[in-house]
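Reviewers of the previous submission asked for a worked example of the structure-prediction workflow described in the proposal, so we include one complete record here. The input consisted solely of the amino acid sequence. No template or homolog information was supplied to the procedure at any stage.
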Amino acid sequence: MNKIFVIGSINIDITVSGKRLPEKGETVKADKFYIYPGGKGANQAISAGRCGAKTELVGKIGRDYFGDIINSYLKKENIDLSLKYGKQTGMAFINVDNHGKNMITVYPGSNSELDYNDFNHIKMENSIIMFQQEIPLKTIEDTIKNTRNNNNIIITDPSPFIKNEFILKNSDFLTPNEKEAELLSNVSINSIEDAKKASKTIHEKYSNNVIIKLGSKGSLINYNGEIVHYKPYKINAVDTTGAGDCFNGTFAAKYIETEDVDKSMEFANTAAALSTLSYGAFPSFPYINDVLSAIGRN
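From that input alone, the workflow returned the following structure tokens.
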């Protein structure tokens, strides 16, 4: 296959960490403060690029101070950039506690202006095309309609969750987390067996492959009806922000290299765990040698 195209959101993440998350109406003191680029699109592209895949990020940022910061960071990464400019750069405001749990509020900014016409000149064939749902769903639909028959593999992360039947039915891989899998399947997930049942329901309904990201319980794939659970890589998480995006990007990177689902799941499972060892989204994402070394030690 040629390369990975990630069509998605690009934000600035403003992260504060403290002992615990605030309750409603409460103010708590933060111990640390960070500003880094993020957004599900940027995160998935960077994680794929760091793990050796030829990757192109397609998105929209603002002509503002934060857009300049994003450009400065992204140009240092091993990815191609196809960026357009809108009114304001998207923002994410993240609270993290000392157990790695987080609360996130997102302002979409220019991400909500991204349109298929912004990038319809890009030739996408024999490639992996990755989506998340922080950009307009119509943009995703239009891209799928115009690229679906070009021997591409469509990977969709249905997050933030909005149920769009066209996108769900026309994706080769769906990669929900536990909560999103519950919403797609109407199955309450309290165990690995529940997750398997949910994956079966989603697979049968949408006729595609299903990966469920289960956090501390690892991950699970239903590939052509065969279900396999991958145990978690044991680690003491500091911040889980972006771990699911890291999983998606590294899965795609390994899959485009090997076309081996088992190797890709093991690789992504390990990479996502490693990404929780420090604060921030992509600043914490591992490089290919980090992941291979961890797999060798496991």
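The mean pLDDT is 94. We consider this example representative of the routine output the project will generate in years two and three.
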